[in-house]
């Protein structure tokens, strides 16, 4: 299954990237393809394109803050979780898909 | 209700995420200039730093730092409102936050509504804009809404409200600073312990930031002891855990020993997040240990009269700290406590845990 995700935490130097890594690892293990956009202190990195979002079945939003350009995800199903959840128990998030 | 609170927390953290680099920049530059003044004996009649008679470069560094620091309430409120209401939230947020940052004279002392005022007015600005967005508008008028109607109709009430709230909030901030200065040593210890526990508990998360911003707000009221206690507590979780991997290598996996070195580096520059790789894999053993270590560090710093002029922690701020020897002692004691605690706990609960093993739990 094709999945997109966004991670963002308040400080944007550690949790954001660790959550992204966990989501990528878990997706690989479960046989999904995933692209994770990080919105840390450096701004948007690994930005999701419109076609990537349109082509995805679901968007995982592992965010503690309001993200930039949220309107890109208006028309896609979203699973919203705190950043901590993506770091500690990514499997539980994928189980919701 | 719970969801509502959750959402508001998210708005506040959005503002915080934009403002962290700004206060680090402003605070450190100001602290640099202050340190130079003290080192070169530029001291005024009150015993404070006399920046005005320092070299022009130092004056300018201080000015730039003060500018960055001065932007902080406006940017904080602006981006809290932005998190709630998007672009239209920026104008009333900036205006309200800027007013919150204006110095007020209360009982002959200067104070400002600062951080607390900016938090409150940012949330109000966001709500006001969201209400205005809901107004039914004829199609013809729609283009003037975002560029004329919403900015004016939100900035005006928000600005008026903040002007009215300014003095009362400034009084609260002044009282709070005053009360903290006059705490008896018993309650000082309690305060330091609470701050230390909060700093370590979520390692850079919202609870850590609450304690951190309390320290920052107190710096603005010229009380440097709170930040001093926080600064010592900020660095001990990564330093202590890194130290633990060095002290007893065989209790840690190779991967953890590598994270340990990274944690030491992060600890030195005052980034509590360096402890996360350990805590994420083993929260029930690691978090109590780092909380304990940070509580030791903050308590020693508080009782030792450590003051921190920069809104940042760790050994890196040593040049701008009052009571440097006690600061170093506090950090070393905290890190050793953390390291000893985690290695002892690991010894008595000998279940090998590794970063990998915990991730699949």
Task: Please describe what this structure looks like.
The complex is a heterodimer of chains A (97) and B (361). Chain A is built from four helices and five strands. Chain A has 97 residues and is of the alpha/beta class. Chain A has a five-stranded mixed β-sheet. In chain A, a hairpin with a 2-residue loop joins strand 2 and strand 3. The radius of gyration of chain A is 12 Å and the shape is globular. Chain B is mostly helical and 361 residues long. Chain B has a two-stranded antiparallel sheet. In chain B, helix 2 crosses helix 3 and helix 8 packs antiparallel against helix 9. At the A-B interface, helix 1 and helix 3 of A face helix 1, helix 2 and helix 10 of B.
Average pLDDT, all residues of chain A: 93
Distance between the first and last residues' Cα of chain A: 10 Å
Estimate what percentage of residues of chain B fall within beta strands: under 5%
Number of helices of chain A: 4
Rg estimate of chain A, integer Å: 12 Å
Taking the sheet with the most strands of chain B, its summary is: 2 strands, antiparallel
Task: Describe the secondary-structure layout.
The complex is a heterodimer of chains A (97) and B (361).
Chain A: E1 2-8, H1 15-30, E2 33-40, E3 43-45, H2 50-54, E4 58-63, E5 78-81, H3 83-88, H4 90-95
Parallel strand pairs in A: 1-2, 1-4, 4-5
Antiparallel strand pairs in A: 2-3
Chain B: H1 2-39, H2 56-85, H3 90-101, E1 104-106, E2 109-111, H4 114-134, H5 144-181, H6 185-201, H7 206-220, H8 225-247, H9 254-268, H10 276-281, H11 283-303, E3 307-308, E4 321-322, H12 324-348, H13 355-359
Antiparallel strand pairs in B: 1-2, 3-4
Helix pairs in contact in B: 1-2, 2-3, 2-4, 3-4, 3-5, 4-5, 6-7, 6-8, 6-11, 7-8, 8-9, 8-11, 8-12, 11-12
